[in-house]
Amino acid sequence: MNILGLLDDATEGVYLLEGHETRAGDGARAAGVRARTIGFVFQSFHLLEGRAARDSVELNLLYRGVSRSARTSKVLRAIDSVGLRGLATQSTSTLSGGQRQRIAIARAIAGDAKLILADEPTGNLDSVNASRVLDELERINCDGATVIVVTHSAEVAERAGRVIRIADGELVSDERKPGSADTPVPTKRAESPSYSSLTLSNSGPSGGNDEKAEPGKRRIRFADMLRDAWLSVLSRKVQSFGQGLAVAIAVGLTITTLGLSASASAQVSATFDAHLNREVSATWSTAVKHSLPLDVIPAKVEDLVGVDAAAVVVDLNVSTVSTFAEARQIRPHVAFGDIAGAARLSIDEAPWHSGPLAAGEAFVGDLLAKDLKLSSIDGAPTILVDGDTYMVAGLITASSRLPLLRGEVVVGPRDNVTSQGSVDVTLLTVTAPGAAQQVARQVPATLNPYQPERMTVVAPTDATQLRGQVEQGVQATLTAFTLLALIVAIAALMNATLLAVNSRRGEIGMRKALGARNRQIGELITVESALVGIVGGAGGLVLGMGAILVVTVTQRWSPVFDVVLLPVALLVGLVVGAGGGGLASIRAARLRPAENLRN
After folding, report:
1. Of 99, 198, 185, which Cα lies nearest the Cα of 150?
2. Can you give the pLDDT at residue 200?
3. Cα separation of 310 and 401, whole Å?
4. Structurally, how many domains does the chain consist of?
5. 27 with 7: CB under 8 angstroms?
6. Among residues 127, 48, 54, 111, which one has the least CA distance to residue 84?
């Protein structure tokens, strides 16, 4: 049977089909002959489980490249000819044994096969359904096709016009019933009471063949292949769900790591910006020619791009600072501009005061205020600094940049700062994140364009490179984790797909028997895996987005969602799915139909 059906080659001799030497080893040519000429009726039915009956019937036509409209017409006509038109859309899994075998016969009829090979077609049927199946085979023979039945049943053999008995691989007898002929002429069934219609015929069916109607159509249409693959995926819901879940987990991990990489990078940038040293200071002497007046410097510096706050500080000589209760010897400081912002002071400000210090006002360190037994600032207390009276506008409770200020005093602008000669001046600025280096370069030329070199500027080192290294380290770690997850997912999916192919060996053997080429079988498995991958990729996108939200909300980060994650999820799913099915598709393409139809 395998030799006649071009599923296997004989060890000796030559097989002539329609006068032409034909071998199963001819590959694509043999597949084409099977598709055009040979129809199979198997003992085990070999239908597409979980799919509509019409899908099994049209399979041969599918691999012949017949258009969908033509396939539909032929399929419905074939199903109607076996009396099952109402079951065309019913799942094969719900059909009885007799109905399944008749659907298998309809598959041979739809393909206009000239040679029907029936392997124990009644082996799994009761007597009633067995009789119906034999009736259908007789009718096909009467329509002009050669029908060969392999059976162990004497009752089935009695209905044949020619009976060849083989025992232990040896030809025992070749008997022809009276009235039978090698070349029966198609007649109506009522006019052919004898059973000679099962005799091997040298002529084909009288009906037209779609290969003549559509010459050269041997390549399966891409849309048909997609539809076949999708229906195949849907027919194995549990298996497909498991494979899709594996892809979804892999894609979810990928999206999570990519999303967290972006979120983590943003968090690293935000953390660097929050803790970055944004302080720029400059010192010079008022003795330098062309120095600007102290009271105009803060406003001029704050006009520079990237400057958030600026103030000028002049250190006075050690003086006596006193209240009515106590006195201390400390070093006062004169401030021009926003000293609170520029020195990053925390001020417990009096309710009546806001903004920079004005002339006659002072900020007192909270430690000094305790020593001086200063009364509540709500009552606008005053202090004396070398005999000059200052109203206390607030208490310095924290000073990260100038920590000694908590034990000292800062007074507002004074006109007599340089009255006794030149003094050293310190400019304090706070810049925007990342602007410190730029501001440090601009300050000297802004304050003294004639002698900028006489000004000493202190700026923090550029942390951009360090931040980039940290971000790259985070991304590299997450990328490595992503690649590992993808490798594990592909390996798991590959194993699952190989197991699935092993369970579908009978179906694959049947597809090859009906004309599918090795390449087409490989493409089917690959497309199925790719479709599972795309669906799993969409599911993984949802899982990944949810995971990103959970992690970022828990860590109080700002979630970063890039629109590119959508195509990335589908692409990764496609790659994982197709990659996982690659080895399985190769194995499926190499399966021998003769061996697998027996399993």
Report:
1. 198
2. 36
3. 13
4. 3
5. no
6. 54
Looking at 146-261, which runs of residues are DSSP E strands? 146-150, 162-167, 170-176
Give residue 256's pLDDT: 82
103 vs 41: CA distance, rounded Å: 9
> Which two tokens mark 142?
């009467």
Are the C-beta atoms of residues 372 and 321 closer than 8 Å to each other?
yes
pLDDT of residue 190: 36
What pLDDT score was predicted for residue 48?
92
Q: Is the dihedral of CA 525, 527, 530, 536 positive or negative?
A: negative
Q: Which of 184, 219, 254 is the last residue of a domain?
A: 219
Maximal CA-CA distance, the chain: 146
The verdict on 307 and 379 lying in the same domain is yes
Distance between CA 364 and CA 396 in Å, rounded? 6
**Per-residue pLDDT tens for 41-77?**
887 888 999 999 999 999 989 988 888 999 999 999 9
- Per DSSP, 9 falls in state -
Tell whether 225 is covered by a domain.
no
Inter-residue contact 357 to 339 (CB < 8 Å) = yes
Model pLDDT, residue 182: 52
Run of H or E residues at 16: strand 16-17
**Does residue 5 lie in a domain region?**
no
> What residues in the chain have per-residue pLDDT under 70?
179-218, 262-277, 461-471, 474, 598-599
Residue whose entry in the numeric block shows the structure tokens 């050690």: 318
Do 210 and 256 belong to one domain?
A: no
| 259 shares a domain with 287 | no
User: Does some domain include residue 4?
Assistant: no
Q: CB neighbours of 243 closer than 8 A, spacing ≥ 6?
A: 493, 496, 497, 500, 529, 532, 536, 577, 580
3-state secondary structure of 165: strand
Q: Does 332 lie in the same domain as 404?
A: yes
State the amino acid at position 117 in one-letter form.
Answer: L
Residue 551 burial (C-beta neighbours within 10 Å; 0-12, 13-18, 19+): middle
Residues 365 and 388 occupy one common structural domain? yes
pLDDT, position 503 = 86
129-136, Cβ contacts within 8 angstroms, sequence gap of 24 or more: 129/96, 129/97, 129/98, 129/101, 130/98, 130/156, 132/98, 132/102, 133/98, 133/101, 133/102, 133/105, 134/159, 136/82, 136/102, 136/105
Classify residue 227: in a domain, yes or no: no
Determine contact, residues 98/133, Cβ cutoff 8 Å.
yes
**Same-domain check for residues 377 and 512:** no
Domain termination site, one of 400, 426, 461: 461
The three-state DSSP-derived secondary structure of 292-333 is CCHHHHHHHHHCCCCEEEEEEEEECCCEEEECCCCEEEECCE
Q: Which residues contact 353 (CB under 8 A, 6 or more apart)?
A: 361, 393, 394
User: What is the Cα gyration radius of the chain?
Assistant: 46
CA atoms of 23 and 436, how far apart (whole Å): 82
CATH of the domain at 25: 3.40.50.300
Q: Which residues constitute the domain of residue 286? A: 277-461
| pLDDT given for residue 294 in this prediction | 92
Same-domain check for residues 168 and 296:
no
Q: 119 and 22 in one domain?
A: yes
Pull the structure tokens for residue 586: 């190769």
